[in-house]
């Protein structure tokens, strides 16, 4: 594999220009062989992701060049089964990859998250022809985006986007939001309802007539995910690009907990990055409090204890994340109601701790480093803003409820994909 260096980053186009379309890969993406290589590539990418994260966040500068590097590295295809040319990595490895990258830049890392959910939908619902087509496209370096959620509706499953037959193909119309990855994608999977009201995924070409991606993401955190609007006006979809996703969304499957595992891993990465930044600031920049009697901030006994507490919480969260990954691997190998419930609960337990440590670590950074840590030149509030924004994806308060119901009353976790 060609070594990844900072100079290998191509120049970025101006971000957010209306009508901008990503160029197709100029050469095939690297194909990662196994779990060990996936972890090694993630470790090599992390410092490149972190190099300009402060400036990208401050300026809302979208990471076009970095996303190209990300997908060309081969990491976007690591869960594609070996039978179709992928590495087929474990869920334990997948979580570690996302946690590593998110410690460098959680926004950039988040851009790939939805692609992995769709890969699993393809694996479980696609025909052999669809698997060869779509898996082959990803392995070649094409990026899958996301047009799933909608801003209105009674709840997150109330979809108004419709798929309609039109001769020998279909058309899809609707309006989506929280469309992380769509701006950077070559293919945009769209969640829609067919004429029977079943959920399908229609995979649209990014340059299809009637499909527009609007760079209107204005959240105070995860500023460079471009998680804004996608509008669809009678976008043509070939019949071969429609997946019967209701098979996995209306029945028990591992798609939901796998998606949740990645979210939990991103939160763990945010915590790891925040704790590392805190330790650096305390060691090299912070002043000791006057009452401590210490010459260095790192000798303050309360600061020492606080760092110890954060490390314990992070390691506990990472341990539960790894445990959840192992359970998911076991579940995928033997899918039934019991194993799906175990996977959902294990991931929910990890999600609780990763959420809590991400928020705690981001908050403690300023507390332990002092007032100078709040200066705009450092942009350290991005850790808290990213943690607070990303952990809102699905409410942890309902994780406690599902976990308690399972252990106390033997109630299976909900069928939907948000647990």
TrEMBL record:
Limits of the Acyl-CoA dehydrogenase C-terminal domain: 261-394
Domain Acyl-CoA dehydrogenase/oxidase N-terminal: 42-141
Location of the Acyl-CoA oxidase/dehydrogenase middle domain: 152-235
Family matches, as InterPro entries: Acyl-CoA_dehydrogenase, Acyl-CoA_DH_C, Acyl-CoA_Oxase/DH_mid-dom, Acyl-CoA_Oxase/DH_mid-dom_sf, AcylCo_DH-like_C, AcylCoA_DH/ox_N, AcylCoA_DH/ox_N_sf, AcylCoA_DH/oxidase_NM_dom_sf
Recorded coiled-coil stretches: 307-334
Pro residues composition-biased segments: 12-27
Region of interest called Disordered, as start-end residue ranges on this chain: 1-29
Composition bias type Polar residues, residue spans: 1-11
Domain of life: Bacteria
Family under the similarity heading: Belongs to the HpaH/HsaA monooxygenase family.
PANTHER family: FLAVIN-DEPENDENT MONOOXYGENASE, OXYGENASE SUBUNIT HSAA, MEDIUM-CHAIN SPECIFIC ACYL-COA DEHYDROGENASE, MITOCHONDRIAL-RELATED
Protein name: SfnB family sulfur acquisition oxidoreductase
Species of origin: Pararhizobium capsulatum DSM 1112
């Amino acid at each position: 594999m060609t070594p990844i260096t900072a100079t290998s980053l191509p120049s970025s186009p101006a971000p957010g220009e209306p009508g901008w379309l990503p160029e197709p890969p100029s050469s095939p993406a690297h194909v990662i062989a196994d779990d060990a290589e996936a972890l090694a590539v993630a470790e090599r990418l992390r410092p490149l992701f972190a190099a300009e994260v402060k400036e990208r966040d401050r300026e809302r500068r979208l990471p076009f060049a970095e996303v190209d590097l990300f997908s060309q590295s081969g990491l976007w295809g690591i869960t594609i089964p070996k039978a179709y040319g992928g590495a087929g990595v474990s869920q334990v490895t997948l979580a570690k990859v996302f946690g590593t990258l998110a410690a460098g830049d959680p926004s950039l890392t988040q851009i790939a998250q939805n692609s992995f959910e769709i890969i699993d939908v393809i694996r479980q619902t696609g025909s052999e022809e669809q698997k060869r087509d779509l898996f082959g496209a990803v392995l070649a370096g094409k990026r899958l985006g996301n047009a799933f959620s909608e801003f209105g509706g009674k709840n997150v499953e109330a979809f108004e986007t419709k798929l309609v037959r039109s001769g020998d193909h279909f058309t899809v119309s609707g309006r989506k939001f929280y469309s992380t990855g769509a701006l950077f994608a070559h293919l945009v999977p769209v969640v829609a309802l067919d004429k029977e009201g079943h959920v399908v995924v229609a995979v649209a070409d990014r340059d299809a007539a009637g499909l527009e991606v609007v760079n209107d993401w204005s959240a105070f955190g995860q500023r460079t995910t471009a998680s804004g609007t996608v509008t669809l006006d009678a976008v043509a979809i070939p019949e071969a690009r429609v997946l019967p996703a209701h098979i996995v969304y209306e029945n028990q499957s591992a798609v939901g907990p796998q998606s949740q595992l990645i979210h939990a891993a991103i939160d763990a990465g945010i915590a790891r990055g925040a704790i590392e930044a805190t330790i650096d600031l305390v060691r090299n920049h912070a002043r000791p409090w006057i009452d401590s009697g210490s010459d260095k901030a790192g000798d303050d006994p309360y600061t020492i204890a606080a760092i110890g507490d954060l490390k314990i919480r992070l390691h506990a969260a990472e341990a539960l994340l790894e445990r959840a990954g192992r359970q998911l691997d076991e579940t995928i190998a033997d899918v039934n109601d019991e194993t799906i419930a175990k996977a959902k609960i294990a991931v929910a337990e990890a999600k609780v701790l990763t959420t809590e440590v991400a928020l705690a670590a981001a908050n403690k950074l300023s507390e332990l480093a002092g007032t100078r840590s709040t200066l705009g030149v450092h942009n350290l509030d991005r850790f808290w803003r990213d943690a607070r924004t990303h952990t809102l994806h699905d409410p942890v308060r309902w994780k406690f409820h599902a976990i308690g119901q399972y252990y106390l009353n033997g109630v299976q976790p909900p069928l939907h994909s948000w647990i």
